[in-house]
Amino acid sequence: THEVEHLKEKLISQAQEVSRLRSELGGTDLEKHRDLLMVENERLRQEMRRCEAELQELRAKPAAPCTGCEHSQESAQLRDRLSQLQLEVAENKGLLSELNLEVQQKTDRLAEVELRLKDCLAEKAQEEERLSRRLRDSHETIASLRAQSPPIKYVIKTVEVESSKTKQALSESQARNQHLQEQVAMQRQVLKEMEQQLQSSHQLTAQLRAQIAMYESELERAHGQMLEEMQSLEEDKNRAIEEAFARAQVEMKAVHENLAGVRTNLLTLQPALRTLTNDYNGLKRQVRGFPLLLQEALKSVKAEIGQAIEEVNSNNQELLRKYRRELQLRKKCHNELVRLKGNIRVIARVRPVTKEDGEGPEATNAVTFDPDDDSIIHLLHKGKPVSFELDKVFSSQASQQDVFQEVQALITSCIDGFNVCIFAYGQTGAGKTYTMEGTPENPGINQRALRLLFSEVQEKASDWEYTITVSAAEIYNEVLRDLLGQEPQEKLEIRLCPDGSGQLYVPGLTEFQVQSVEDINKVFEFGHTNRTTEFTNLNEHSSRSHALLIVTVRGVDCSTGLRTTGKLNLVDLAGSERVGKSGAEGSRLREAQHINKSLSALGDVIAALRSRQGHVPFRNSKLTYLLQDSLSGDSKTLMVVQVSPVEKNTSETLYSLKFAERVRSVELGPGSRRTELGSWSSQEHLEWESACQTPQPSARAHSAPGSGTTSRPGSIRRKLQPSA
Predict the structure, then answer these.
(1) Which residues fall in the annotated binding site for ATP?
(2) If 0-12 CB within 10 Å is exposed, 13-18 middle and 19+ buried, where does residue 484 land?
(3) What are the CA-CA distances from residue 110 to residues 33, 126, 212, 531, 644 (Å)?
(4) If 0-12 CB within 10 Å is exposed, 13-18 middle and 19+ buried, where does residue 343 land?
(5) Residue 559 DSSP SS3
(6) Which parts are annotated binding residues?
(7) Could you tell me if residue 562 is left (phi over 0), alpha (psi between -120 and 50 degrees) or otherwise beta?
(8) Looking at per-residue confidence, does 248 or 147 come out higher?
(9) Distance CA 296, CA 298 (A)
(10) What does the pLDDT read at residue 408?
């Protein structure tokens, strides 16, 4: 049964394949189509050769150019039509080759399918013959068993009249008879099953034959439909070819007529061509003399243009000189107005691109400068240029001395009794510490400021007596620490002076008197070793705290007794950073959070001062609380905003410059000079006399005005004492 079903499935698949191939194939019609295309192709080829020969004849004849002639346009159209016919011939050739290949492929596939169908029919015939043989063997077995049954029954009947002596033989015969009957029953059962299988096989065979007959009828019907369709397609093709041939004949006839007209026109145009040639020769002779006239005209025009350009350049130089003079005057007036208003002056410094910035598009320079105005800076952020106006902008080529020259006027006012604050702001790695501290070979604002103060004090030594004291502190994780103390980890607090002046001071902050550059270097070296710096992804030596250098200048006029006290606060703020960029974790993450919080508090203070609010939140952070004197209108304040020029830091640079513009608009009012007339307290007088008589650096605790002082241990004093 399974073999019959398998044969049935194979016959169905083969019938489907034959029907598909016969529907696709039309061998005889395709061959006729190919022959017709070959004949048409040959005819078109001959027609093309004839047209080419006629064109060669026309080209061989001398013809004068006739621009805009009606016949020349018709000739060009005929040439285009001829090229189109050639393209159609080439396409027909390609189509013919494709049809030949397709006919060959379909013929091979049809032969293969017919062979496979014959093999399947042969296998089916063999299977039917094998089943017939098995059926005949079953009939023969049944017949032989039927022939053996009657003698056995007869023996049974005869045995019944035998004597008792043969009972044992009878029982044995009965057993054998029973066994034979069981075998006959089994054979009958097998025969019955075989008959059922044979009957089902006959039914399947009849069904298969009916299906084969149905498939053959469908194949014949599909073949007939295919022939009809192919015939209709052939008729359509022949009709299209005849129409195309008729159109081609009409067009060729028109081409011949146009060519005849062109020949007659060419014959009539020859005299006109000779006339045009004579005119052309005359114009050619006239043109030969034209270059000389053109050169003379060009020389005169060039001379006039050069004179006009020189006049314009001289006028432009004069206007540029006047513009720059007016610009300097306007800037001078603006600075004076800012000074009178007490605005916070803001300067910007752009650090150079370094190897730590990497390479590629992210390390390109995104900052440009205005060549005519040194207070304008341009930033290219996300493809859009943004401009900012500050008080002064220093490019990456500016030196430490250039930056210091801009701030030294503020520093010298400290000697006259003014409070001065200079603080550096910007993202981490932007160069704030370099600008404020610098290197031993190229010091920054801090050392240069103290050197300037020493030189100014020496110039006024005949009339004034000054003492200069230095303190250094840092704000680390919102904790104020003494960088010059014996125990730098000791926490300090900010207090109001008990004299009712409203000034702030830090009890216990170490204060050293300096008298020479050597003293300055020792103080800076000692303070720098105690400052907290760590490595981050953005900066190899990132400052993790806000550093404050407090310089106090006390002076007395020897002739009038006028006493002045000036304070210079030099602040190196910790850099703002994005935790995702810096890669801060653990303690570095906590430090970054405190840094960003304090800088945010500084922004809140600036916003409150800018909008003239009644309450300014100075106490929201230790940083803003310590800078309250510098930001509350009793000080001259300058901010140095440090920016990075590379593309990957444009977001931080944009934020820093926007913050700088907001700071620049804050008006603190004019700074006041702190002077006193009258006698000092006895203790202060003794301290002043001892300082004047023994000019050596001493360590004192920073105390409130008028309060006593306490000495630090002698080990620190010996460490900071200048060498002999």
Answers:
(1) 426-433
(2) buried
(3) 20, 25, 18, 95, 80
(4) buried
(5) coil
(6) 426-433
(7) beta
(8) 248
(9) 5
(10) 86
Residues with Cβ within 8 Å of 143's Cβ and at least 6 positions away in sequence, in order, are none
Chain center to CA of 392: 35
Say if residue 186's pLDDT is above 50. yes
How many degrees, rounded to 5, is the angle at CA 690 between CA 685 and CA 694? 155
Q: Give pLDDT, residue 72.
A: 63
| Between 526 and 48, residue with greater pLDDT | 526
Residue 84: alpha-carbon gap to chain centroid: 50
- Per-residue pLDDT band for 10 (boundaries 50, 70, 90) equals low
Element holding 386 (H helix, E strand): strand 384-389
Residue-wise pLDDT for 513-564, tens only, equals: 988 878 888 888 887 777 765 544 444 445 678 888 899 999 998 888 888 8
* pLDDT one-digit tens code per residue, 648-695: 888 889 999 998 888 888 877 665 555 666 444 433 443 444 443 333
Residue from 132, 40, 52 nearest 91 by CA: 40
Placement of tokens 């013929």 in the chain: 107
Most confident of 213-227, 256-270, 281-295, 457-471: 457-471
Tokens of 663: 């700071």
Closest CA to 394 of 649, 576, 638, 643: 643
- In degrees, to the nearest 5, what angle opens at C-alpha 552 toward C-alphas 436 and 685? 165
The token pair at 683 is: 């203790």
pLDDT band for 237, please (50, 70, 90 cuts).
Answer: confident
Read off the DSSP letter of residue 47: H
Q: Which tokens go with 583?
A: 């890669």
Quote the mean pLDDT of the chain: 76
CB-CB neighbours of 546 under 10 Å: 25
- What are the two backbone dihedrals, phi and then psi, of residue 215, each rounded to the nearest 5 degrees? -60, -40
Two tokens, residue 383:
């493809």
Closest CA to 552 of 450, 628, 474: 450
Which backbone phi and psi does 414 adopt, to 5 degrees?
A: -65, -35
Strand 419-426 to 636-643 pairing? parallel
Query: What long-range pairs does 9-12 form, CB within 8 A, spacing at least 24?
Result: 10/120, 11/120, 11/124, 11/208, 11/211, 11/212, 11/215, 12/211, 12/215
575-578: long-range contacts, CB 8 A cutoff, minimum separation 24: 575/426, 575/427, 575/428, 575/429, 575/430, 575/432, 575/538, 575/539, 575/542, 575/543, 576/426, 576/427, 576/428, 576/652, 576/655, 576/656, 577/427, 577/428, 577/536, 577/538, 577/542, 578/652
Write out the two tokens for 515.
Answer: 């008298």
Residue with tokens 């008879």: 177
Structure tokens at 186: 């089994």
Continuous segment of H or E residues that includes residue 244: helix 167-288
Residue 611: both structure tokens together: 């909008």
Query: What is the residue whose two structure tokens read 């052309």?
Result: 280
Which H helix or E strand runs over 123?
A: helix 70-159
Q: Evaluate whether 50 touches 138 at the Cβ level (below 8 Å).
A: no
Quickly state the pLDDT bin for 403 (edges 50, 70, 90): very high
* 489 contact partners, CB below 8 Å, separation of at least 6: 481
Residue 286 pLDDT level (bands cut at 50, 70, 90): confident
